[in-house]
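To the structural biology subgroup,

Please find below the input and predicted structure for Copper transport protein, which we are adding to the shared reference set this quarter. The sequence is reproduced verbatim from the submission form. If anyone notices a discrepancy with their own records, reply to this email rather than editing the shared folder directly, so we keep one authoritative version.
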Amino acid sequence: MDHSHMDHGGMDHGDMGHGGGSAMPEMCNMNMLFTWDTNNLCIVFKQWHVRGNISLMFSLLAVVLFCVGYEWLRGFIRKYETEAAQKAEAVPTGEPVTESTPFLGSTTEHRQVNIEKRSHAVKTALYAIQTFYAYMLMLLFMTYNGFVMLAVAVGAGLGYYFFGQSTSAAKETACH
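Predicted structure (tokenized):
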């Protein structure tokens, strides 16, 4: 059907986004397939909008540093767990039971339980932070942008190089 003969004079084209002097805001390009295109690339948040080569470079550097931070966190957690286990083992046990032993157990047993509870609470918080961090990394990778994906891999490699001396290079493919 040909509509060229119709009078569109009463229509306000500015309301429809068809010109009228109003510029369309840049929209985030959301890819579901692998791409190297960086036009309107948004990384995780619409506010993290890559608008040029300089912002792309700073964004990729931020992704690398974010991934290095994740490997640092993993190393920190391993170190904390080792130190917590050593602290728990350092508490003397095996006090002889005598007539003066308290009915509810010794203060050493209470101290041991308190150390274990505190350690478990800290490890729980660290686990939650690590899991959140891992899923954020997954979201970075799921931009499906080759540059961002490479930045994740480079950051993970650098992080392992600097903070993974005490761990195996073999890693499960789970995201956390």
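Summary notes: Residues 18 and 100 are 90 Å apart (CA to CA). The first strand starts at residue 41 and ends at 42.

Regards,
Lab coordination
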